[in-house]
Design goal:
Chain lengths: 164, 804, 288
């Protein structure tokens, strides 16, 4: 067992876990953050995507020891805590408005991939969107509604001046 | 509260959407119960044989584990769908790779994989049958190839089911062939396809005992489409009555048919483990296990023989369909039924003979997948129509036009089409939207000198909504609506949400009927101790059949509440005329506020103790179906469609890609435009995968490409813009006129794409999935080879090996 | 998840020197793990035989891209995203940048390292063909010191490399010699993104007077049990102009030196045919 500290959704957390335990399992089991999903366990489907120090990674492929000292953002950390309680991130609202989520299992990873994409390219072309989301498989939507949601989120992000 | 505008036909936010975008939605693997153990399955490593011995490696402390074998099953060792041929756990014989033999449970999930590897099973191998042809040989008398004994089931050895659907007498058929100007024959094949829901199959089971230890009841929660199917399975496995078998659907991450019949297997297994260890047991598959062990789309072989007149009229057809059902029957008879009925497509056949059979093989049983037999036979038909056009010397378009069914026509089963259908118009519009004629001409001009060939092709088809014939009558679906303490309506159905929008559209129907805001309506989690059986969530029936029941139950509830609403007459509006009232409501204005509705509901409950509205299926009086003759009204309603695919074929890499896709369909009523578009787009994406990417690579019956890196599903970078168009001719059978759309988009893409590829290359490909290796072999004109030469035993790049 | 993480040891010595000491102490006992995009897949599948791992992911000493007038030196810990973002890599070595951009998808590129891609030694890996075409030089490091060898000499056989058990790949150096070269890179995979190569070709050529090819380099993936330079094809084209005869000769030479296989993903015949087509496409792009 190794003892380490990570920051998860802005909160410092102490972890006691085997160093090779997958970050995905630490998030889901040790921290009870079940929003990050396992779809394949081989880094192909993207449903385990999280942000690690601002970079999109597949948490099923990260040994937790390598995440020590990192800042992790999961889907639970995307909505902002505002005065009256939870305020959805524009990306989340757009996924709702545009039908970007059907069964929802790919949605947490897809939203994080979208955040990562819009951080890099605030006004992405369709090609950049396709590339940015190519590592997040969705079996339900055929991606069209997701592209719509991303496009709308990009517009909103500019108007509101909200970044990341 | 916002005023309820017209809700049907708008796109309110998905009912359970907030949980999905925040990560709070609870899928089965997110759920942890106190004292929960974890389960695993010990599976056959051979395709067919007799179990000789089972040894438990002493390196494991087996006292820590619960172990379940066939002998532990309290009731029948069977997974019931239509026949009792499918063991819950293999006892003496195994008939497919990965067949479940033993179940293990342990408090710690991490202990299980080593334990599974430490169960050593020895077999006496028997030769397996892996092709339809070998299975047919067994049926025809080759005893060594008989792998499924038909005693008590099925039609003949290895034959789960046959159907014969005929229009016209046999001698008339022969006469038509004799008189034909052209006879066109061809064979078409489709491969297995994996549903590839991103959430694997999983369940959590608990067992409850009386003080004296007798098993009282079983509860299974999990990822599934049909809670009552699992109830039925548990009844037999545990020898318990239905009301002692409780099934709860958890948030389900995709299904597409792959969680219609399979949960009966995994649910029974988890419950048996819970019985053995006395703790709740979670049994969730990982991707590799789900890929090798669970159901896939039935592979098919369809042979067409068609008599045509000189002017392109279909005179007669013989269609021979064979589907591969895998080792046990499961739903093969029903898949075959739909395949058979859809085989003639949207055309007028003066004479036709469709013979279908479902054959056994030594692979994991195949099962439901969106389309359910129709994609297979419509692929064959729409490829064949393009072939016929070529032979006769007509364009693909003109051939269709001369043969389309129309309003008042009669289908191959003798169903009179009283509902309007206008395939001529759909074809015209689809070709116009896709700029088909101009592109066809342009590609014809540029292809000869192009490295990247371009093609455009279409498919015309239909899909029947709801269960075949008397199926809905047998299902006898029931829907209830009750009210919460606050007075909000709560829909009680066993119809499940798995992305397609069940919760949302049923809420829309209820809200519009009750004249309250969409946000007021709740949908209860499908828990069989709470909700009635509204039938399975399959067969494109939810909007049409269940939606209609929700509409009727809502009307019934409103009627019950009107006295309570009217009693607050001073705040209600009065109208001088009925027309004025209709106009008022048409502008979306309510007679009462949401709060008034709630108050009325609470008042009703106070007075009567409860408020529960109910509706049960009523078979339309004019729907007749003969199950023996396979004649009559096969489905109450059909959605009709024309899909157009534009492709490129790169002659350097032999890769075919879809560059534009246009999907036009007439669907009765679009209840929710965004959801409906999402259904079509998602189905088209799966259809593109079916045609060009998704190959199941088997070796000795085992799926070898059991990783997502090797089972190729299209990514966002592979799919074209998908343009969706709807037309609406309301059906009296569905809620607000809606017909089913869930499966329709699966039927059109594959034939449209291969028709386009033939246009691009001049080569007729008749088998899917069509991979670049197959295109290459034909283009290089080699008679053998193609993806049959792939070697599933060799994987240097993704088969993760121990270090050398 | 088919393994118990508790069965594995992972240590993370803070410096490169400390890691090298660990490797020297008992060569072969600890397996280095960088971004984990290969080894963690094996863990999840229950096929990670190596129980003792030493993390090199955090070593700043390995994650750098140094630029001089003559060369670009890439630390083995540079990720594919690092490569894509670096201006000198983009300007001078477009084939490497392109290969990085289609290695897996974004999440893989953020974690996968160039060193890991090379040392994992899959014949289908994306970065070797460009590196072979660019004549990269590798520096290997151990507690015993460093040594340098041409990348061409690194792959010895299927998943066997020249790396000693106590060594790490330290850096990859490419000379900035390729201004004026025409470059070509094409990967043919199972789909457009997130795909394993069925065959890939990286080409560089210098075309001189009269359209004569004065220098030509061709790197390929999935044509043999290691990534290769297609030296026979190169020889067939060198000092020649691009004519149908040259192309035919080069294709024939390539067919002779390639030994692709049938596997779970594709066939030998397809790979051979497509490789020839890509070669032809490359050569035709050199026509003047």
């Amino acid at each position: 067992m190794s003892e380490m500290r990570l920051t998860v959704n802005g909160e410092g957390r102490g972890i006691s876990a085997p160093p090779m335990k997958r970050l995905l399992d630490v998030l889901r089991e040790d921290l009870g953050l079940t929003g990050t999903k396992e779809g394949c366990g081989e880094g192909e489907c993207g449903s385990c995507s999280v942000l690690m120090n601002g970079e999109l990674v597949s948490s099923c492929l990260v040994p937790v020891l390598q995440a020590a000292g990192s800042a992790i953002t999961t889907i639970e950390g995307v909505a902002q805590l505002a005065g009256e309680g939870e305020q959805l991130h524009p990306i989340q609202q757009c996924f709702l408005d545009k039908g970007g989520a059907q069964c929802g299992i790919c949605t947490p990873g897809m939203i994080l991939a979208t955040r990562h994409l819009l951080d890099k390219y605030p006004q992405p072309t369709l090609l950049q969107v396709q590339e940015g989301l190519a590592g997040n498989l969705c079996r339900c939507t055929g991606y069209m509604r997701i592209f719509d949601a991303v496009e709308q989120a990009a517009k909103l992000t500019v108007t509101d001046g909200v970044t990341g | 509260m916002p005023e309820p505008g017209p809700i049907i036909g708008t796109s309110p936010i998905r009912k359970e959407g907030l949980g999905k975008v925040t990560g709070r939605a609870q899928y089965v693997d997110d759920i942890v119960l106190p004292g929960m153990w974890h389960g695993a399955t010990v599976r056959s490593t051979i395709a067919r044989g007799r179990i000789v011995s089972i040894k438990f490696d002493p390196a494991i402390d087996w006292s820590e584990f619960a172990i379940v074998a066939a002998a532990d099953i309290p009731g029948e060792n069977t997974i019931i769908h239509l026949t009792k041929d499918h063991p819950c756990l293999a006892a003496e014989f195994v008939n497919h790779p990965a067949e479940p033999i033993l179940l293990l449970a342990h408090p710690h999930k991490a202990a299980l994989h080593a334990a599974v590897d430490s169960v050593h099973i020895a077999y006496e191998k028997l030769p397996g049958v892996f092709t339809i042809e070998d299975s047919e040989a067994g049926a025809a008398g080759d005893a060594a190839k008989v792998i499924w004994d038909h005693h008590g089931h099925g039609a003949a050895p290895n034959t789960f089911k046959t159907f014969l659907m005929q229009k016209g007498a046999p001698d008339e058929l022969e006469a038509a062939f004799a008189a034909a100007d052209f006879i066109v024959e061809e064979e078409y094949r489709t491969g297995a396809q994996e549903q590839l829901y991103i959430e694997n199959n999983g369940v959590i089971a608990e067992v409850f005992r009386a003080p004296d230890g007798t098993l009282e009841s079983v509860t299974v929660s999990g990822s599934m489409q049909c809670p009552y199917y699992l109830v039925h399975a548990l009844e037999l496995v545990f020898n318990l009555p239905a009301d002692k078998c409780r099934v709860i659907q958890t948030e389900t991450g995709g299904a597409f048919g792959g969680k219609e019949d399979f949960p009966s297997v995994i649910g029974s297994h988890a419950a048996l483990l819970a019985m053995k260890c006395g703790h709740p047991v979670k049994l969730c598959y990982d991707r590799a296990e789900d890929l090798i062990a669970t159901t896939k789309r039935h592979p098919s072989r369809t042979r067409h023989r068609t008599a045509i007149s000189r002017d392109g009229k279909l005179l007669a057809g013989e269609i021979e369909i064979a589907i591969d059902g895998g080792a046990y029957a499961t739903l093969s008879p029903v898949v075959l039924s739909r395949s058979t009925i859809h085989a003639p497509g949207p055309y007028h056949w003066p004479h036709i003979r469709v013979h279908g059979k479902a054959m056994a093989s030594n692979v994991a049983p195949h099962g439901a997948f969106r389309g359910f037999g129709a994609p297979q036979s419509l692929f064959a038909l729409e490829r064949h129509m393009d072939k016929i056009a070529k032979v006769v010397g007509l364009t693909p378009e003109e051939l269709r036009r001369r043969n389309f069914l129309a309003t008042g026509g009669t289908t191959a089963t003798g169903q009179h089409l009283s509902d309007p259908v206008d395939m001529q118009h759909l074809l015209t519009r689809a070709l116009a939207e896709s700029d088909y004629h101009a592109k066809r001409a342009e590609f014809d001009r540029t292809n000869p000198s192009a490295t990247v060939k371009r093609g455009i092709g279409f498919a015309a088809f239909m899909h029947g909504s709801g269960f075949t014939g008397s199926g809905e009558r047998r299902l006898n679906s029931e829907v209830k609506i009750d009210v919460t303490e606050e007075g909000r309506p709560r829909i009680l159905v066993s119809s499940t949400e798995f992305g397609q929008g069940t919760n949302t559209i049923l809420s829309q129907v209820c809200a519009q009927t009750l004249r309250i805001p969409y946000e007021e309506v709740l949908v209860a989690q499908p828990d069989t101790s709470v909700v009635p059986n509204s039938g399975p969530t399959v067969a494109s029936r939810t909007a049409m059949i269940v939606g209609k029941l929700v509409q009727r139950a809502s009307e019934s509830m409103l009627a019950r509440l009107l006295p309570y609403l009217s009693s607050r007459g001073d705040t209600l509006l009065a109208f001088a005329t009925a027309a004025e009232e209709s106009a008022h409501f048409a502008r979306g204005k309510p007679h009462y506020t949401a709060e008034q509705f709630r108050a009325a509901a609470r008042a009703c409950v106070r007075e009567h103790g409860a408020l529960v509205a109910q509706a049960r299926y009523e078979a339309p009086h004019n729907i007749f179906w003969d199950d023996d003759q396979y004649k009559g009204d096969a489905y109450p309603a059909y959605a009709w469609a024309v899909y157009v695919a534009e492709v490129t074929v790169d002659t350097l890499t032999y890769m075919a890609e879809v560059k534009q896709f246009h999907a036009l369909q007439e669907v009765g009523k679009v209840l929710h435009p965004v959801l409906a578009m999402g259904q079509i787009e998602g189905g088209v994406a799966q259809g593109i995968g079916y045609a060009l990417y998704e190959k199941c690579v088997y070796q000795d019956g085992l799926m070898r490409n059991s990783q997502m890196t090797n089972y190729i599903m299209p990514t966002s970078a592979d799919l074209p813009p998908i343009h969706v168009y709807f037309e609406e001719t309301p059906s009296i059978h569905g809620a607000f006129g809606a017909k089913g759309i869930g499966e329709l988009p699966m039927d059109g893409p594959a034939p449209a794409i291969l028709n386009a590829i033939e246009h691009a290359t001049g080569i007729a490909f008749n088998e899917i999935p069509l991979l670049p290796e197959d295109v290459f072999e034909r283009m290089a004109r080699m008679p053998e080879g193609g993806t049959e030469s792939m070697n599933p035993a060799v994987d240097r790049d993704t088969q993760v090996e121990a270090a050398v | 998840m088919r393994a118990d993480a508790a069965d594995y040891e992972l240590i993370a010595p803070p410096t490169l020197a400390a890691v090298l000491d660990v490797l020297a102490h008992d060569p072969g006992w600890y397996t280095p793990i960088a971004g984990g995009t290969e080894l963690m897949v094996a863990l999840g599948a229950g096929r990670l035989a190596q129980r003792h791992l030493v993390s090199i992911n955090h070593l700043k000493e390995l994650r750098f891209i140094d630029v001089t007038a003559q060369a670009v030196t890439i630390g083995s810990g540079a990720t594919f995203t690092d490569l894509r973002r670096h201006p000198a890599v983009c300007s001078d070595f477009p084939l490497l940048m392109k290969a990085a951009s289609w290695t897996g998808a974004i999440a893989n590129q953020n974690r996968g390292t160039l060193g890991g891609n090379i040392v994992n030694a899959s014949p289908a890996a994306d970065s070797p063909p460009p590196l072979l075409a660019y004549d990269a030089t590798l520096t290997l490091i151990s507690a015993r010191g460093t040594r340098t060898l041409p990348y061409r000499d690194f792959h010895l056989g299927y998943k066997r490399t020249a790396l000693a058990p106590d060594e790490l790949l330290y850096s990859i150096q490419i000379q900035r010699n390729f201004a004026g070269y025409i470059s070509y890179l094409r990967k043919v995979g199972t789909r457009n993104a997130q795909a394993i190569s069925k065959v890939a070709l990286a080409g560089l050529a210098l075309v001189g007077e009269g359209g004569k090819i004065t220098d030509i380099r061709i790197g390929a993936a999935s044509l043999r049990d290691t990534p290769i330079r297609c030296t026979a094809a190169e020889q067939a084209a060198l000092h020649r102009t691009v004519t149908p005869e040259t192309v035919a000769a080069a294709r024939a030479a390539l067919a002779g030196e390639a030994r692709p296989i049938d596997d779970i993903r594709s066939t030998a015949r397809y790979r051979a045919a497509v490789a020839g087509n890509l070669l032809q496409e490359f050569l035709r792009s050199l026509m003047r």
